[in-house]
Amino acid sequence: MVDTANAESHHQDDPSRRDFIHIAAITGAVGGVAALAWPLVDQMNPSGDTLALASVEYDFSKVALGQQVSILWRGKPVFIRNRTPKEIAEARADDHASMPDPQTDAARVKPGKEEWLVLIGVCTHLGCVPGFGGGEFGGWLCPCHGSVYDTSGRIRHGPAPKNLAVPDYAFTGPTKVKIG
Amino acid sequence: MSGHPPSAYEPKTGIERWLDARLPIVRLAVDMMDFPTPKNLNYWWTFGGILAVCLVSQIITGVILAMHYVPNADMAFNSVEHIMRDVNYGWLIRYMHANGASMFFLAVYIHMARGMYYGSYKAPREVLWLLGCIIYLLMMATAFMGYVLPWGQMSFAGAVVITNLFSAFDQVIPGLGTAITTWLWGGFAVGGATLNRFFSLHYLLPFMIAGVVVLHIWALHVPGNNNPIGVEVKSKADTVPFHPYYTVKDGFAIVAFFVLFAWFVFFAPEALGHVDNQTPANPLVTPAHIVPEWYFLPFYAILRSIPQKLFGVLAMFGAIAVLFVLPWIDTSKVKSMRYRPTARIFFLMFVAAAIGLGWCGGKEPDDVVLTFGHTATGDPTGFSVVWLSRILAIYYYAYFVILFFLGLRENPLPVPANISTPVLGGAAMPAGSAAQAEKKG
């Protein structure tokens, strides 16, 4: 009897059952392709050893007043600048000037360590490394498309949309800074 | 391939008949050589053949260079020096490859300008034009990644700037641009992982170009060639077989073009390069004056002319994207600008604007073109390169708008009835006078 019932149901046109099989098959195929495609896409993202290079420590005892060093962190240059009182004063005087990405100088340095400006040395326009001493604000000038940054690394004019980024960093000793 | 006359190929031997029944490849080659081609093609039509030879030359020299090059951030620069100094004839092969890229772009720009002047993008050749635009995009991607491989300062700065174009998406959805650039780099900055994948793709893309070229030629052989008067082939009298007429004409042009190519390779191999690329890549310093290769300068000038990052990037990509819709922008039914005197002037101005943008791209944005005075320190002030680029960029886009409205209202000159008429009679004549013209011969 059971066999007969099954045979009958096969002969019947059961659209909902047929649709279910189609939808299930398509869903399975799409899911399978997506699951297989993701590893092929994700392999391009930073690998484990690249991600592991999270922080770098630097001894700045030899960076004299008015000097700057560039160190490499995660493949990017980081500027560590020992600012002169004049540079700090200029940056603070412009705190409320009109600029594309307003920020006070105090928000960009650690309290009590205002002379140390730590910046990711990557222009926020298209990633070139700005040079210090160019532009009319006494800060950085990007050689690629002429973005001008002030002595706090804030964008003042040019195509760059953002200030030079301040990375996560901490002073781990009297002359040591840890970036990342 | 449809649109063909019945095949003229008759297999003569048993082996030929056996092969023809299984893979009619000899038939395909014979039909290609026999292809009815308009008899009035001028030398502007030889650049297709020149481009085919350029692609073959780039693939051969590129495969050879890959035998000696090391795609590793620590070794890439030195391996290129090794090719230049130690590998037998390595200097020749590398200079052929590097200058070959410039020759390839020179030829493709002439090829595109020819298509734009003679209306080769119009019906029924829109797909042919679109495939050409895709080839151009693939060429730009390939050339950019190839320029990164020597891993000099300019290579590095170029990779940084071009990949950072995608960071503009941060202004659309915060974080999106950063996610894309990190994914492209395989790190937090351009580095070894970037170089390695660029090498892989630089090797792959030329073969994709070759594939699209096959489609491009297929799409050409369906409607057949356009021609300088832009009137479709009406009868067999309008055509000659591709071989020997155009094999010889193309062959001559290819030889002439390769004289220029050889002059660059042997007498000015670094003329189109940048000295900064003789310095190994250094992520801590960007060279003072970075410029792309000459063939990207017009787009670079458009990018720089707009002070806002996202719009600058969009304007630059838009300048290429607009080419894709050109067949639907141009409203004129007359193909050749020989019979569109007004359009011809706008077209020549477009070419001048593109060349002018290229000139601007090679200059500093603040360089002064027309001096009106001097600053206190004696520097000239006045009309600067960035303003010239803005005007030229506006015209670049305006050309496409003009083309749309011009087609609706202009009065074109009388168009010949068929190809044979102007070929044999000289000036355009009313329809029906073709036979008479032939008698005059």
Please provide a written account of the structure:
The complex is a heterodimer of chains A (180) and B (441). The longest helix of chain A has 28 residues. Chain A is elongated and about 90 Å long. Chain A starts with a helix and ends with a strand. Chain A is built from four helices and ten strands, in the order αααβββαβββββββ. Chain A is an alpha+beta fold and 180 residues long. In chain B, 37% of the residues are buried. Classes of the chains: A alpha+beta (180), B mainly alpha (441).
Q: What is the strand and helix layout of this fold?
A:
The complex is a heterodimer of chains A (180) and B (441).
Chain A: H1 2-11, H2 15-42, H3 48-52, E1 56-59, E2 68-73, E3 76-82, H4 85-93, E4 116-120, E5 131-132, E6 138-141, E7 148-150, E8 155-157, E9 169-173, E10 176-179
Antiparallel strand pairs in A: 1-10, 2-3, 3-4, 5-6, 6-7, 7-8, 9-10
Chain B: H1 14-22, H2 25-34, E1 36-38, H3 47-66, H4 76-85, H5 90-117, H6 126-148, H7 153-164, H8 176-185, H9 192-221, E2 239-241, H10 242-267, H11 297-305, H12 309-324, H13 326-329, H14 341-361, E3 368-374, E4 380-384, H15 385-409, H16 420-425, H17 434-440
Antiparallel strand pairs in B: 1-2, 3-4
> How many distinct beta strands of chain B?
4
Largest sheet of chain B, order of strands side by side? 1-2
State the helical fraction of chain A. 25-40%
Number of helices of chain B: 17
Distance between the termini of chain B: 35 Å
- Name the CATH superfamily assignment of the largest domain in chain B: Cytochrome Bc1 Complex, Chain C
Characterize the overall form of chain B.
globular
Main β sheet profile of chain B = 2 strands, antiparallel
Overall SS class of chain B: mainly alpha
Oligomeric composition of the shown chains: heterodimer
Pattern of helices and strands of chain B: HHEHHHHHHHEHHHHHEEHHH
Beta-sheet strand percentage of chain B?
Answer: under 5%
Number of domains of chain B: 3
Radius of gyration of chain B: 25 Å
- Strand-residue fraction of chain A? 15-25%
Low-confidence stretches of chain B: 428-441
Q: What is the residue-averaged pLDDT of chain A?
A: 87
CATH topology of the largest domain in chain B: Cytochrome Bc1 Complex, Chain C
